[in-house]
Fold this sequence. Notes:
The chain has three helices and no strands. The protein has helices at about 5-20, 20-50, 60-65. By secondary structure, it is an all-alpha fold. The protein is elongated and about 45 Å long. About 80% of the residues lie in helices and about 0% in strands. The N and C termini lie far apart (about 75 Å).
Amino acid sequence: MRLPGPTELIIILVIILLLFGVGRISKIAGELGNGIRAFRQGLKGGSETSEEEEPKTGNDQAEQK
């Protein structure tokens, strides 16, 4: 089975554009981008937050008063 050529890809993209519309496609792409960004931050921040976050003691509150 061969992959679709450039002409077929353009036709498929035009059909998708007609079905969903420009606004909806941009919204979906934005949400996908936000999801990927959050996933990457979760991978990077997952190990850092467990090391950086220390349990708070009562002494911290006494110093603020």
